[in-house]
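Section 5: illustrative case.
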């Protein structure tokens, strides 16, 4: 007696390919939900734009190697800086804050100041490293 062999179907001819495609769609939809941005958004000016900032609308802060803040050669605590910026924002709505950072400053102090600027909704914020002399 001869045994009949069944014809083997390829992957494309079976319903398994549609099942795999459906599972991949579900997988990517679920993964897309986990993509969370833990950073912060800052509006940066366009590359070719020029923005006029009046001298009265500019605040310059310095951060030394220990992470201490100073404004106009006087040291400030983080809360004093916050109060100072808040009062300046009320007086000058187009306030621009500039932070000059020493290369030895702890990165967490810099991040904390950037978060403070974001919290106070400073639209024009800039920071740069001090040039070593």
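Designed sequence:
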């Amino acid at each position: 007696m001869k045994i009949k062999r069944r014809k083997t179907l390829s992957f494309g001819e079976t319903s398994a390919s549609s099942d795999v495609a459906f599972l991949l769609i579900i997988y990517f939809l679920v993964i897309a939900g986990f993509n969370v941005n833990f950073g912060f958004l800052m509006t940066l000016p366009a590359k070719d734009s020029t923005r006029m900032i009046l001298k009265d609308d500019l605040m310059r802060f310095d951060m030394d190697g220990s992470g201490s803040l100073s404004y106009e050669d006087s040291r400030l605590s983080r809360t004093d800086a916050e109060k100072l910026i808040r009062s300046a924002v009320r007086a000058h709505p187009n306030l621009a804050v500039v932070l000059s950072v020493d290369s030895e400053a702890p990165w967490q102090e810099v991040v904390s100041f950037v978060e403070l600027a974001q919290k106070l909704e400073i639209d024009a914020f800039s920071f740069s490293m001090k040039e070593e002399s």
